Amino acid sequence: MIKRTQQDWTIGSVVKVGFLSLTVKAAIATPGDFKPDAYILSNAAGTQLYRFVPHNGVEKISLVEAREMIADNMHRAEQLAAKVLAKAQADAKAIAAINDILFQ
Prior knowledge:
Blueprint: E1 14-17, E2 20-28, E3 38-42, E4 49-53, E5 57-61, H1 63-102
Antiparallel strand pairs: 1-2, 2-3, 3-4, 4-5
């Protein structure tokens, strides 16, 4: 999420990119790859979609491309959640084993 700016980049807000005033429709997080987050934006009429990546600029995209970006992001989020859940379960088992040893 863009944080150091005077504009509000939350979903539903209107931002200026160059000379365009666009509405933020989705924020595509990119954790772990050290790249800036991507944003799906639309024009005021809702007839054109854009992808905006800070430092890479804005480009027109189709509805299919926007859906693919969101689906890929959901897939990555599900994978990350499964990984975090597995680690939490392993940590809980280790803590239980330590408690058994300490408090027998």
